[in-house]
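Summary for the steering committee. One of the milestones for this cycle was to obtain a three-dimensional model of the protein with inosinic acid bound, which we needed before selecting residues for the alanine scan. The sequence and ligand used are listed below.
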Amino acid sequence: MSHHVTRSSEFHHPNLDVLIEEATLKARIAELGAAITRDYAGRVPHLICVLKGAVVFLSELMRTIDLPVTIDFIAVSSYGDATRTSGEVRIVKDLDTSPAGRDVILVEDILDTGLTLNYLLSNLRARNVHSICVAALLNKPARRLVDVEVAYKGFDIPNEFVVGFGLDCAQRFRNLPYVAVLRQPSQVWPEGAAIGG
Ligand code: IMP
C-alpha cells in the first residue's frame, strides 16, 4: 500500500504547487553536509535548530555530516498563525544546555525578513559561543529587512509563501516531503476543523 493513500489530503491539496522536489532537497542538503564536514574537521559542531520549521532540515542535514555533532533546540515566536511578520521576536523555549565555548551552527528553515536570525545571532553571541554561523534551507532575498550572512544556504526562492519540509501554514503541511507554494493561505483548514493548542 502506498503512503499516498493514507495522506492524500495533504499530498493533493488543491492550493499547492510543488516548488522543490524531495530528491532535489536531499541532494542539496547532502552538499551542505559535506561542506560542513570539511569546514569543521577536527571539531564538534553544535547544531541549534530553530523550532518548529527547521526540524526536518535538521534531521536531514545532521545525517549528512560525517563528524561528531551535538544538537539543541530553541523556539521563537515569529509569524504566529498569520503569513506576515510582526517584527517582534521572543524566545518561547530556550536551549537545554549552554552554548558557551561551542562552534554553533544555527539551523533555520527559511530566511525571510532576517529579523528572526538577526535576533538569534546576537542573543547567542552574547552567550560566549566560540563561533557561530547560519545554515538556512531556503532564502527569500526579496523580503530582507536586515542583512544576515548565511554560510550554508540551500535555495534562493521567489517571494511566495511556501510550505512543506517542516514549513507550515497555521501548523499544517509540515509533513510534506517537498517544498510547495501555497495559494490562498487563508483557506488551508476546512471550516470547523479542530486542531487545538
Ligand atoms: P524572518 O524573521 O522574517 O526571516 O522569518 C523567518 C521565519 O518566518 C521562518 O522561520 C518561518 O517560520 C517564517 N516564514 C517566513 N516565510 C515563510 C514561508 O514562506 N512559509 C512558512 N513560513 C515562513
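Key point for the committee: The longest strand covers residues 103-111.
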